[in-house]
Design goal:
The protein is mainly beta and 215 residues long. It has three helices and twelve strands. The strands form two sheets. The protein has a six-stranded antiparallel β-barrel with strand order 1-2-5-4-3-6. Strand 7 and strand 8 form a beta hairpin. The longest helix has 12 residues. The protein is globular and about 45 Å long. It starts with 7 loop residues before the first strand and ends in a 14-residue tail after the last helix.
Amino acid sequence: MFTGIVAAVGRIESVSPLGDADAGVRLRIAAGALNLSDVALGDSIAIQGACMTVVALEAGQFDVDVSRESLDKTVGLDRPGRVNLEKALTLADRLGGHLVSGHVDGLGEVTHFAPVGESHELRIRAPRELGKYLAYKGSVVVNGVSLTVNRVTDQADGCEFSINLIPHTVEVTTLQELQAGARVNLEIDLIARYVERMLSAGALPDARPDAPSLT
């Protein structure tokens, strides 16, 4: 689990194929300011919002293997460039953002990114199937950053939502590099996911008046 509070901006230094075109890749990542002293092989680190497993570790850098499935479902993990990094949450950490699984639910497209006063307004078009999970003042993860939705507009081809980015968020994440037309990794709120499942599952087979109580 993660919080969506980016700990550091690192950089994908190299991308090495693990096999043929249908295989994944190994990424060598320079950790930047991310403290790796408590990281071990097998630990999880979120990279641009996607949870990955550390498979090699050296001073100031680490490697992860990314499957073809993950490459097909995400952006920003297939070439060198700057990436948002966050180590997995521990029970002693503050939950500064919201509960984040590190599983990308879909890709969005930036439709607008521009300064508004001292802040920036970011508008993103999400796939239609994710629109029902986006709500005013609700949470969403964009490229690994926990953000609050300010406005939601349903459209024929999807759902556009707006976010206000304070200067600090722009300064310490890769969101500062976004522009109209860019694609981003999206993860919807974990609680919304479970609520939708409970509402759509219907009554359980033994949910009858004479069924014994479990409480």
